[in-house]
Design brief:
Blueprint lengths: L3 H9 L5 H19 L2 E4 L3 H15 L10 E5 L26 H8 L3 E6 L33 H8 L5 E6 L5 H7 L2 E4 L19 E6 L2 H11 L25 E5 L9 H16 L3 E5 L7 H16 L17 H12 L2 H14 L5 H21 L5 E5 L14 H5 L6 H6 L3 E11 L2 E10 L5 H13 L2
Parallel strand pairs: 2-3, 2-4, 7-8, 7-9
Antiparallel strand pairs: 1-3, 4-6, 5-6, 5-10, 9-11, 10-11
This protein binds glutamine.
The site of glutamine has 13 residues, from loops.
Length: 470
């Protein structure tokens, strides 16, 4: 499917209409989604929304809102009034949202056609979408492999051509890693750049909503619509008061060499080296940097995140939301609803989180992890005095086959390069950097660029020049 930017031009020139594109979107879903399973719900009012968008374009022409008639899919942990949002959990099987997330309000105002809710790892916990209570999503590049996760449904929806844009959430890599596995551009904005109001919270100090798209220009377009201070989310930032991160002709790009010595597939590392060469050829300066604390990120993340998960998921008790199991007493209802409604990975993290927060262990685990986190921020601030952007591969491997990461630890290692970004709150983007071959198939892999706080424009600038205009 055309990009959002191309669609707008095609609508304005009369080459096509939002109705035609909405039909195309639904036709792709009808033809391929029984196999791929990117969607949990396809909204029944897609045609109505498209007709409204078409009206607006007729009426307003160039003045029509930016995303008028652009089909967008949404990870199903984002609230859309009147629609189901399951977060891929049995406990929310019957949950219908009573209000719009702030980003949904903004996308609606921008004229987007909301197509449906996409599959994810339950409550966004995972790296493969295998943890969905509704069954996994397949990678459109190779259906024997996972699309990545947790925003695997959103990534697959774009990769299979159903929509030009899908929204995901990223707590430790859940937009960037599936973007890498599915050959897409994935943006995780600065913490606080985009409102979290109406997103189901996983790790509140880590979560951000962002985009999965086929071009960097589309990521920029949709980001600019979603970003901004929101009175309903006190952690959102007013970027006019933020130090300006300039766009430059040539960037100094830092490579944390020590961090990249082990655990990366050799051909992924080769693709990464080729990308560095291309950057140097384009006139950017490539320098080695050292980020020793970043390497500890994964350990800190798997303490901080479960702690926040255990607290955020306490609300799913069978009383306030979703599915209720029977019980003799109120406590039984809580226990039975959670026992039946939540999956294994979710329970594992709730237990882990409750443990690290418990009185006797708080200082030893949670306190230490938070200390490390502030030290990581300081380390990063120091490095950004000498470089403009940091780069790593997005993930150490291409998409893996179903069941390949049998134990939780090997799955967690997929996030080694992405979690430090959430812990420090800076923005990052994953952009395709070629393919590697597995079982005779060419599988996409991504490069990650990390900018200082509120440095999204720098990522877009580098990305558009090196990828969109390649
Ligand atoms: N894969 C990571 C995890 O399992 C990140 C998840 C996310 O970003 N939502 O926690």
């Amino acid at each position: 499917m055309k990009t959002a930017t191309e669609l707008r031009a095609a609508y304005l020139s009369g080459e096509t209409t939002p109705e035609e594109i909405a039909q195309e979107s639904l036709a792709v879903i009808a033809a391929t989604d029984s196999d791929i399973h990117a969607f949990l719900d396809v909204y029944d009012d897609v045609a109505v929304q498209a007709a409204k968008a078409a009206e607006l374009i007729k009426e307003k022409g160039e003045q029509a809102p930016t995303l008028c008639g652009v089909p967008i899919a949404l990870k199903e942990n984002i609230l859309v009034k009147g629609k189901r949002a399951t977060a891929s959990s049995k406990i929310l099987d019957n949950y219908i949202c009573s209000y719009d997330a702030t980003i949904i309000t903004k996308l609606k105002e921008a004229g987007a056609v909301l197509v449906g809710g996409t599959n994810l790892d339950e409550f966004a916990m995972g790296s493969s979408t295998e943890n969905s209570a509704y069954g996994p999503t397949k990678n459109p590049h190779d259906t024997t492999r996972v699309p990545g996760g947790s925003s695997g449904g959103s990534a697959a929806a774009v990769a299979m051509g159903a929509v030009p844009v899908a929204i995901g959430t990223d707590t430790g890599g859940s937009i960037r890693q599936p973007a890498s596995y599915c050959g897409l551009v994935g943006l995780k904005p600065t913490y606080g750049a985009v409102s979290r109001h109406g997103l189901m919270a996983m790790g509140s100090s880590l979560d951000q909503a962002g985009t999965l798209t086929n071009s960097v220009a589309d990521a920029a377009l949709v980001y600019r619509i979603m970003a901004g201070k929101d009175p309903l989310d006190m952690t959102t930032i007013d970027d006019t008061t933020y130090p300006k991160v300039e766009v430059k002709e040539k960037y100094r790009i830092g490579v944390p060499r020590d961090f990249l010595r082990e655990g990366i597939d050799p051909d992924v590392m080769e693709a990464f080296e080729h990308n560095l060469e291309a950057l140097a050829k384009a006139g950017h300066e490539i320098v080695d940097i050292s980020l020793p604390l970043f390497e500890k990120g994964l350990a800190a993340y798997y303490i901080v995140m479960p702690a926040e998960v255990s607290s955020n998921l306490a609300r799913f008790d069978g009383i306030r939301y979703g599915v209720r199991a029977e019980g003799e007493s109120l406590l039984d209802v809580y226990q039975n609803s959670r026992a039946e409604g939540l999956g294994t990975e979710v329970k594992r993290r709730i237990l882990l989180g409750t443990y690290v927060l418990s009185a006797g262990y708080y200082d030893a685990f949670y306190g230490k992890a938070e200390t490390l986190r502030s030290m990581m921020r300081a380390e990063l601030a120091e490095v950004y005095k000498t470089v403009d952007i940091i780069t790593t591969p997005t993930a150490p491997t291409p998409a893996f086959t179903f069941g390949a990461q049998g134990d939780p630890l090997s799955m967690y290692k997929q996030d080694i390069f992405t979690v430090p970004v959430n812990l420090t709150g800076v923005p990052a983007i994953s952009i395709p950097m070629g393919t590697v071959e597995r079982d005779g198939k060419a599988l996409p892999v991504g490069v990650q660029y990390i900018a200082p706080h509120a440095g999204e424009e720098r990522l877009f600038d580098l990305g558009i020049r090196t990828y969109d205009q390649r």
